[in-house]
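Hi! If you just cloned this repository, the fastest way to understand the data is to look at a raw example. We've pasted two of them here, unedited. The first protein comes first, obviously.
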Amino acid sequence: MRCGLSRAQHRGPWFCWPHHCCTGTRQLFVEMADRMVADGWRDAGYEFVCIDDCWMAPTRDGQGRLQADPKRFPSGIRRLADYVHSKGLKLGIYSDVGKKTCAGFPGSYNHYDLDAQTFASWGVDLLKFDGCNSDSLDLLAEGYKRMSLALNRTGRSIVYSCEWPFYLRPPNYTEIKQYCNHWRNFYDVYDSWSSIKSILDWTALHQDTIVKIAGPGGWNDPDMLVIGNFGLSRDQSVTQMAMWAIMAAPLFMSNDLRHISPEAKRLLQNREVIAINQDPLGKQGYQLFKVQQEGWLWERPLSDLAYAVAVLNQQEIGGPQNFTFSLTWLGHGLACNPACSIRQVLPASRDWGVYSWLSSLSVEVNPTGTVLLTVQPVL
């Protein structure tokens, strides 16, 4: 199950728990909708409750329509959507471009219009469309396009989340953005630092291709936030939250809101980080270069000539390390010209004061941790 922010014109927090995806019942989703309201997730901007794979019955009904598992969703998806909507939230659902979903349930192949109409009639607000079990890349591409057009024909606003580029080498991102609101590029995230690091490494390696295509209406999706589970340390959790904000990523949470720690909750609900993620300029950040041996410097242009800056320490052993860099390196030399105000957002918020263009900045970062800063021009 997933919860989060996700909009057709922008991204947003939402969430799923992989360990519940094939066992979750209606009651579980009702409880999570209640938690999202009572515990401040909705107020922080998280607006979707999303059902992942395995929600369907093993076969379609007599009219060829998808149907919910009658034991786990005895009152159907429409009733669940009504409940989620009554809480001021939105409902997302899962299907697949192929003949079967990744877990072996009925896929949407040759049923694109019927499935789109079914989802719209149920009050669905987001469709995650997976890419398993398609017979060819041509059929996969045709299916993604046909479902996009079918969703539009329903007249209901439904965010369209695609796995399309993951299956292509290389993807045509200009074409994909014409049809999808956000898209997965890389392997599934796991609750481990090695998984987070591999996603960041892949993103940096391919940034010349993927950064320029991201913007309002279409976003690169590095997969879910796994903060609040068990595989990441505190510093690694800070890194994922900071870097997902830098990458303008959809904020998809994969965790259990009934048992999340107060520390993880504060991090995921951090209003300053979410504001960076949702910045209306809509530009994705990028890696600049190494700082000393183990530090990486990233930046993201923000509204009003501001920048978000992340200093990531990739060292996995030892203690905190200081990374020093010139402010002339930021924003093609313009971020702090002639002066700028710097504020630390993560791991804790504090003002650093005003710096001149020729100043250097020294940032202490824990191993596998990140310091997230905002740089505001002083004109």
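Ok, and the second one:
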Amino acid sequence: MWLGRCHGKGLRTAFRLDALHRQMKLLGEDSPVSKLQVKLEPGVNPSHLMNLFTYEKGYCFVYYLSQLCGDPQRFDDFLRAYVEKYKFTSVVAQDLLDSFLSFFPELKEQSVDCRAGLEFERWLNATGPPLAEPDLSQGSSLTRPVEALFQLWTAEPLDQAAASASAIDISKWRTFQTALFLDRLLDGSPLPQEVVMSLSKCYSSLLDSMNAEIRIRWLQIVVRNDYYPDLHRVRRFLESQMSRMYTIPLYEDLCTGALKSFALEVFYQTQGRLHPNLRRTIQQILSQGLGPSAEPSVEQASAGADSEVDADTPALLLGDEAPSSAISLRDVNVSA
């Protein structure tokens, strides 16, 4: 998989790099977690260090190394030798760099590690986007239909645009195309309520049958647009998902908007099934701005969902004081 992706230039890479730039826009180019080699400094949450920058900025660096080599087969040989040498051991970034320059002595003689603006040290320790990215033009044939459909849904008049959009069968799309389309809608949220209503009518049932990466994107659109008729889908998803990457983004969105009481209610019902670390993180999200005697409003939260809080449900246990400057990674779900 590594070898194939290092030379791939298709939709998958385009999608993930698009997500990286969206995350960069959210966090800012000077965010410490955007470094490839992050130091545990004040304000840096260790749980945020395995993120898009780790994988996608790291991918761009490895791709850059492959371009320096210029010979895909020889670079594959290097990767195999590196893995063989260090398998079952712990390594640091310098091990990779030393191995690379040792395997390609001609590149070491050319001082490729010190090229202005592309220094290896800068790759590892500078904040911001990758210093170089692969040419992704070959993936444009797959991204053009996504952009066209997004433009239809944001065009006016809505009735005419929705009719044209609904004629496009996204069930035949690749997973990454659907995810990219939903990401575009997420970026545009909040959307006009009539647009969300038409989107739900057109796609909600179909998306509900797809994998979790697709479903969470649609549910984030539901939450960010306060679309109550589909809240029961959010509830069902949170009741069935115990993974951090699928629960945290939704709880963060719920607590950012007008649906915090709904989030509290769902958490009451599911907290006993959550891993202690995940439960504590959600408690911190819920506790931000919550008064000591605040109680969720079941009446509002139940709009679009018929279940009620059981009297025997354990009380919400708020964790320690929530961090005052937590870094949100809720816009990024890229494992589709």
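That's it. A detail worth noticing about the second one: The CA atoms of residues 11 and 140 lie 8 Å apart.
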